[in-house]
Amino acid sequence: MRAAHIERLVPNIEAIGPGPLFETFGTRFLARLLDIPLVQRGVSVRGNPIGRTVDATALNDSTVAEFSTEKGYFAGDKPRNDLAHITYRHPSAKQIYLVSSQVAPAGSIDAFVEANRSQGRSVHVLDARRIAEEIVDRLMVSDDAIDDLSEFIPALATVRDEHALDLRAPRPGSRHIQRLDVDAAIAEALRRSPCIAISGMGGVGKSEAAAAYVETHRSEYVQTIWLDGVQIERIEDLSAAAIRRAGDALNVVGLLNSRRCLLVIDDARVNLEPAQLSKMCGQGSHIILTRRVASNSYSLPLLTENESKSLLEADGVDPCPRPIFEKVLATAGGHPLSLALINAAVANGTIWDDIAIDCEEIGKFTDGDIRIYERILGRLRPNLEGELAVFAWADQPICDTGFLRYAIKPVGVRNLQANALTAVDRASVVRLHEIVFAALRSGIWCSEARAAELEDDLELYIASLSRGDAHDLQTVAATHRRTLEARITAGDRRPAYLYALIFAWDAADANVPSLPDPTDLARAIRDASGPARDMQLLLVIETVEALFRYEREIKGSTEAKLKYRDRLSVFDILEDTPGLNSRQRAEIIHHRGKLHRAIGDGAQAAKLFERVLESEVPLSEAKLQLVRLYSKEPNLNVKRAQQLTDELVASIAAGGEGLSSSVTLGLIEALHWAREDWSDNVFEANYDLFMAHVSRGLLAGIPQAYETLASIVRNWAWTNPSRLKMLSGLIDTASAHDIREDRGRGAYAEIQQKLAKTTGEAADKHLNLALQGFEALKRPSAYQRRNHAETLLELGRFLEADTILRKIVDPESRPFVAFSLSKANLGLGNLKEALAFADEAVAAAEGRNARFKPSFLEQRAAVRSEVDRSALDGHNGGIKSQ
Q: Which of 593, 644, 747, 837 could staple 710 via S-S, CB 3.0–4.6 A?
């Protein structure tokens, strides 16, 4: 990933111009890099170049720099001339920097520096690549530096934000009241202790106060980090938490120890003790916890009278009459969320006299009392009923951001935020304040007519995603799974709803009775017309595949394949359907090909996929399927596999327009499953490109990304284990319990198990994380059970491993099961069986498994050595106690 970021930044640096702009960038860059103030002298205040002066100097002239955007800078005499100019103008300079926006030929910088080495003076030459390297390696951890340089390289902010995700503190809201006393109190508390807790009732502004403190004091820290308390169940979890900068996982505890760092854990659990957390802080680092109740905490005060009045009259609303203001204070006190909601109501047309009536009806507000919210939400109803109806209809406080923007338009989302109704959450969802949602549930906010509209909106939104990236569909389906299942239970079996649920369900969790009979639906499609037919077509195809996955999990592969074959007639019906467009016909042929491949008819599958590529819509998915088929016997066709791989790689490198992330990740995985020199070469040649996509998938929590990384780790564990260290930081922030689907959890567990081989003292940590992953599986496959056993072997739990391995019946993986059984029985002291299993593994190491023969031979040699030693000692090779 480091290399990928460098490659991304280099062309952006080359593009900075004209010269004066690059000088400004270069001066800021060097000042950040060297951590010293530099004065830019080569450009006037109007941005014009100034002659006969050095571009930038330190205050004491010990450090000087020249900047250039000249093409061919390193091919001519420009570096030498710049150096001569500097030494003439500043003969006492000790550190000289020549900075170019161009890329230097290999070796030219070292040669120049060596030729101009001088006693008492150091010459540093930075080209575009070296600038990018310094930014990635040394400046990426500084939000301040990246914010500063992003003015010149916008991609910098994107690179940083891709990996930081939601870890940066949210900015204070538009109604934020600056509270100098609160800021001073927090600062004083942190002066006394590195870790403090801010406590107070819901809606009192704890998160807002913490965010405001971060905003005000950001420059005092190298790094600011914002974590949701739900991520940290106990102090030990903080040791495993990491943020990402430049593709590397930087451990939070390590950051607290090594640099000035401010960490906020918002809505922290009560078991997180400040005294214990303080021990994690190095010099200048601090931790702020926010939570409702905390001992030894800073209890956030309510707003003062003046602050309350400022918030109540924010955004230019009419001044609140004094008698009414006193009633508001008597009711809500200085409670910020209550006052913000009243302000929003007035801004939306409620008169102050009506607010006074509300206050008289409610009486005094207390913590947890939702009556004031019920009243104020009632005042907001005319302007926000449509927006809030979505949450009432979904019966949950969160909504998928994409669907919400579709249903109420971006302006509706902004209205929710502007009226102080939303809480901080991840970007993929919009969340209402908990107490606001509680008030919402106490009333009737969604009419039957509005519910019908939203049901239609959800249907149309799902349809709009049906041919996009499947991961977007998975996100909305997972967020609204409960809503969708409730509609299905109520009898609303729209094809779009069922289609989305297929993407939300694990294979074995599919609600099969709710799915249509694919044959009946295929026949019905022939008589349908209009847009609905397209959604029905997709539902037929996905139902066939969902039933296969379900039956494979529940009844086994053999029976599942028999039933899958019986459903070939579904595709006969679909192909005979009149009026389909070219894409629909290509999809039908493609999925028929997938069916043939699944039941072992690779030759027919290849013909069908080739038909797709010859059609008007040559699906990239068909290319991927052919790469998988042609990379292995009995359909081996290396030349064609390479050709299709090159086409897919070119599409990915060009930005992947029309190419789903599923295909990209699938190609990376296919290259490792191929286990051939050509596929290894393709992967190595495009390593940075591929790993950028894997990393993005991991950050998004996509199960397929874990499977893809597992294929890489699996290959390297056998062929090049020393490289595994390069990948150890990619999943530091993940937990098996946070990953959707068994396939993702199993891949996570396998990655941890393989990483344990190269991490020394951390091996047990990785092995125990692997065990957590394997134990979290609902229905482990034969392959996952074998890896579970391997993990137990690494921990010396031979009898448990032997028990698992002997229950695996899978001819394809038998050589590896025998290999593992040999290790288990060697550990148990059952030498005869250990040798027999080793012989079995070696004998099976032929064809595509030949590359594993050295490992099998090594195991057999270890068993024979133990047999020989045992014979010398007079043992008979019986089973020893564990």
A: 747
What type of residue sits at position 844? A
* Residue ranges covered by each domain of the chain: 2-152, 180-299, 631-700, 793-882
> Alpha-carbon distance 493 to 507, whole Å?
20
CB 195 within 8 A of CB 287: yes
Quick check: 497 pLDDT over 80? yes
Secondary structure (H, E, C), 288-309: EEEECCCCCCEECCCCCHHHHH
Average pLDDT across the chain, whole number: 84
Which distant-in-sequence residues (6+ apart) come within 8 Å of 242 by Cβ?
249, 250, 251, 252, 729, 732, 733
Q: Within 13 Å, how many C-alpha atoms sit on residue 112's CB side?
A: 25
Spatial separation of the C-alpha atoms in residues 124 and 147, rounded to whole Å? 25
CA 628, chain centre distance (Å): 27
Other beta carbons within 10 Å of 145 = 22
The helix-helix angle for 853-873 and 814-828 (nearest 10°) equals 20
Q: Which tokens belong to 394? A: 């979904």
**Euclidean distance between CA atoms 318 and 320, whole angstroms:** 6
Residue 305 pLDDT exceeds 60: yes
Query: Out of 3.30.310, 3.40.1350, 3.40.50, 3.90.75, which CATH number does the structure's domain 2-152 have?
Result: 3.40.1350
Q: Enumerate the H helices of 165-304 as residue ranges.
A: 180-192, 206-217, 235-240, 252-258, 274-278
Rounded Cα distance between 184 and 845, Å, is 70
Q: What are residue 270's phi and psi, to 5 degrees?
A: -70, -20
Is the overall model pTM greater than 0.85, yes or no?
A: no
Cα-based angle 113, 115, 121 (whole degrees, multiple of 5): 60
